[in-house]
Description:
- The protein is α+β, with helices and mostly antiparallel strands.
- It has one domain (about 5-80): GIY-YIG endonuclease, CATH 3.40.1440.
- The protein contains three helices and three strands, in the order ββαβαα.
- The protein has a three-stranded antiparallel β-sheet, sandwiched between helices.
- A hairpin with a 6-residue loop joins strand 1 and strand 2 (about 15-20).
- It is globular and about 35 Å long.
- It starts with a strand and ends with a helix.
Amino acid sequence: xxxxxxxxxxxxxxxxxxxxxxxxxxxxxxxxxxxxxxxxxxxxxxxxxxxxxxxxxxxxxxxxxxxxxxxxxxxxxxxxxx
Length: 82
């Protein structure tokens, strides 16, 4: 099974990002943009700016956690892919 770790950027004026993991990245983005995704993402329009592919759920969760905690890496990804 394939899992994705992804980063979204808010389409509003502020540079807000969200990091998550999923099995189906297209479906998950639709959920985020329709207000049915994570609580944090509700009320905003999101754009996918980064994704990584993993074969293991545990590796995807671990990488998601690492990116969320590492602000330097998160900012580097944001600058590179915007």
